[in-house]
Amino acid sequence: MGQDADDPAVQALVELRAGLERTISDLSTAAARADELIERRASGRSWYDIVSTEEPPLVIETITRVLDELGELGSRFRREEALALQREDINITRIGELFRVSRQRVSALLHDRPTRARREP
């Protein structure tokens, strides 16, 4: 069985990889911003002054967005990987063992068909 560029699991993994790169960059920026906030507080500024003058996106907004994106990309990859294994005639019980989840969770993965809007980051 060759690796096909049209393989949905490969496509999902490529998107996940790109998402990981964005995450690394975004979290590095958020860490630098957190350092700035710490410095402001250490210099005696009030929390109100710090929060009310923080430039968007806020550190917490960045973290929330990154976690949401990674969750979505990771879920899509897991679903596509489970479907690929099923196409290779691997049974649900064995897929569950491979993924370290219950066979019921695998069944839910295999039957969850996200809408196109949920698939696009």
Distance between the amino and carboxyl termini: 30 Å
Strand content: under 5%
Order of helices and strands, N to C? HHHHHH
Provide the domain count: 1
The count of helical stretches stands at: 6
Biggest sheet record: none
Work out the radius of gyration. 20 Å
Mean pLDDT: 91
Helix content percent band: over 70%
| Structural class designation | mainly alpha
Protein name: Sigma-70-like protein
Description:
The chain has 121 residues and is an all-alpha fold. It has one domain (8-119). Helices cover 76% and strands 0% of the residues. The chain is built from 6 helices and no strands. It has helices at 8-42, 47-53, 59-87, 92-99, 103-111, 116-119. α1 (8-42) packs antiparallel against α3 (59-87) and α4 crosses α5. It is elongated and about 65 Å long. The model is unreliable at 115-121 (pLDDT under 50).
How would you summarize this macromolecular structure in one to three sentences?
The protein is built from six helices and no strands. By secondary structure, it is mostly helical. The chain has one domain.
Keywords summarizing the entry:
single chain, 121 residues, mainly alpha, disordered C terminus
